[in-house]
Amino acid sequence: MYRAISCRRYALLGQFFLQLFFATALVGCGGVLPQPVAMQPTPTISNLMSVPTLSPAPSPASISAPGKDATADVTVTINVHLGRHPISHFIYGVNGASADILAGLRPTLNRWGGNSSTRYNWQLGNAWNSGSDWQYRNGNYGYTGRSASDDFVQESTTVGADVILTVPTLGWVAKNNDTATCSFPGQDGNCGDASGANCEHPGAIADPTIANTQSDAQSIVAWMRHIQTQRVRFIAMDNEPDLWGYTHYDVHPTCTSYDEIRDSYLTYASAIKGVLPHAELLGPVSCCWYYYWNSPSGDADRERHGGQDFLPWFLQQVRAHDEQNGGRTLDVLDIHYYPEGLYNNQSNAQIDAQRLRSTRSLWDTTYVDESWIAQPVALIPRMKQIIQQYYPGTKFGISEWNWGGDQTVPGALALAEVLGILGREDVYLANYWRYPEPGSPGFYAFQMFTNYDQRGSRFGDISVRATSTLPERLSAYAGLASENGRLTLLLINKDPQQAATVALNLQNFAGSGAVTRFQYSADAPKSIAQESLGALPSIVQVPPYSLSLLVIEAKQ
Length: 556
Known about the structure:
The protein is built from 12 helices and 24 strands. By secondary structure, the chain is of the alpha/beta class. The strands form 5 sheets. Strands 3, 4, 17, 18, 19, 20, 21, 22, 23 and 24 form a 10-stranded mixed sheet that branches. An 8-stranded parallel β-barrel has the order 5-6-9-12-13-14-15-16, surrounded by 6 helices. Strands 1-2 form a two-stranded antiparallel sheet. The N and C termini lie far apart (65 Å).
């Protein structure tokens, strides 16, 4: 019986990424879930999903649309007066992108995070320890400058991307960047991994001082004073504390508990707010579905807290603290989300179709997840309802997400679908893990929202209603540009073989000017093609497995 692998341990990543520059964004989750798939209980999640009152923003399957045009396969209706709300600038984020990636992709948010960020020594500026991801070794991952974090912030902000800076709250950071320094040195001079021990199945216990030095809130306060003149908008309280006992077993050989995650968060968040009162703080940066609801320390810890699901309990506890102390320490409820069983490079007809279907887990209360979860996830409306119930005013973010397969065209379509959903469903921030490689299908899919013309043009920043009569085959997302009234309409043909004839029903748009089509398809997977269409056609043809972005200028 195989074990449930947590979101970062698929073969898609692995030892290779440990050699990359900025391995701070390395394997962000790591570790294994505490129970075999067959034994994993379905989370209780209180009674949240039993109430049929979850109300996601208008979505294709939940809005009645006019009948299909007689000569078209699909009708897409766009009504610019309905479903209007700003699309957050921060949903087009990535993780650990360097200057060349930033220049081509033009993301709006770049995250300094991942497993190794938990053990980054900011005072040395070039020392990390990635825990179990690399035999608990220290290293500099090829960086030889004075401060990797300072350079990261400068590179990101120079090209207009805001920054999420992850700060260590575990209490230990690498004491040097010597790759021969590790927590489990062997008699032969090599480094070990304690035979794969973790907090659930402990083995050898390390002396944490061999490879690490202690770090506390005052050290992080000093770092915050250091960056006061830098443009850092978001500060995240560490990375996936639910997996400290797995990924960072050498310095944290016990499984974390509800109380530890809360106390660590509040200690560091309160200290940071005292130095950077206007920074937006993210927490608890939970790794994955199981730990949204359960304790890494097991059922006994959960029962000690009245059997309450973890995220609602965490929000309730932070709210009580903040109200007692007269100031907010949590601005963004931050989690990581990877669809179970799909974060990989596999591609065949069955996986491709499931990858595209599974994006519904972000919003659709009727979609039953096709993994061991086996119930509706409805992630965005679920999290918004939890926030509203337990700490109103908190924003919602997903600082790591990836649907897998971004080297394939269907994976790229799923990537684009997720970005469209994040905007339509009004998520505050989101960061792709790590970033789609330049020239890959996923790279072009991301550019459809951030740099579709290679000159920095973006998808509209005001979401408006777009509905398809056949959303399972062709989905649609629309946005208006607040600065000039330009309408952008993205059509995603998810059929691998059949082109679609799409009738366009544009409502309440005060006349349209010139129309340009930007298209990416399986037929031409190495670039985004650009074509002037003149006036807005009533019917357009979209090829199989394709992204078609219609940019409709407002008539001046």
